[in-house]
């Protein structure tokens, strides 16, 4: 029997090796995007056959609040429309906000972190996004990414990449968190944080180092601060709305003053922190008498809560409208109070979080608690 099959195998092999390639098995042919045209040179060159994959997003940027869920839109379709569904693969990736300003657009994709990949009903999520992301799939072609329990560090640029055979199209969506930027300095005084200490100082106050975009937005809203501070991209800047001596000079227009990139270990400055909405409640604890710092910490604990952090107070002021003309201790040993409606005996004529700095811990004030 084997001897009878050998001539047939030889004929098939001959047909496959014909110079014109008429009997050659195609190296690649998905039937839609490309067709394999043999030109006799053995290259198996692939030509586009007229059907295109399009990937779009209705919103180039999306904003949300910390702890909430957000949907980053991404849809794909073919032109002309296909009658038979295709099996596509989608990959969502993320570039953190603190790296966007450092990279040229041609280099940006190399710094991305994978968020999720999916094909059909199978998917996998990665890193800090594991268990927090899914595809919406509300309609054919909908590959929008849903992120739950938004975290402070989720801000940045997300890329939706759709892959079908040799076709690869993508679109990007910016994610921003609604919050407030505030300057922060050490108990030791002005300019005592290197970059990593500034990062930690913001985290200790339930915040994160602000991005350039966040500081710029805060400046547009009126933030004026003459001390330079670290930002998330490693630059040192400060916002000026009223030009004056000592802050770049009266002849320099208002704006963000920049020292550029600084050595992250050797150079020391203040920090600009960003705080988003808090899940709990910040409140002024009513007490019959004023408290020193130790008593303030204990009073919050006795009330079933903990002493509030600076970022929590700023978020309560800016995002929840907290207004209280009573100075109170905070967790870092500072004394502050939030004012949304400026009035007599409550500080300056504009809203803000008033600060008494870091008074000696034996002095007595009220206290702000967080629960």
Task: Please provide a written account of the structure.
With 371 residues, the chain is an alpha+beta fold. 16% of the residues lie in helices and 32% in strands. It is built from 6 helices and 25 strands. It has helices at residues 2-16, 97-100, 195-204, 212-220, 293-302, 310-320, and strands at residues 34-36, 46-48, 52-56, 61-64, 70-72, 75-79, 89-96, 113-119, 122-125, 133-135, 145-147, 156-164, 167-177, 179-184, 208-209, 229-230, 235-240, 255-261, 270-276, 282-284, 306-307, 328-329, 335-339, 352-355, 366-370. The strands form 6 sheets. Strands 4-13-12-7-8-9 form a 6-stranded mixed beta sheet. The longest helix has 15 residues, at 2-16. Mean pLDDT is 86; it is low at 1-41 and 100-109.
Which consecutive residue ranges, at least 5 long each, have pLDDT under 50? 1-41, 100-109
Secondary structure: helix percent: 10-25%
- Broad structural category: alpha+beta
| First and last CA, distance | 85 Å
Q: Any idea what the shape is?
A: elongated
State the total count of DSSP E strands: 25
Helical element count? 6
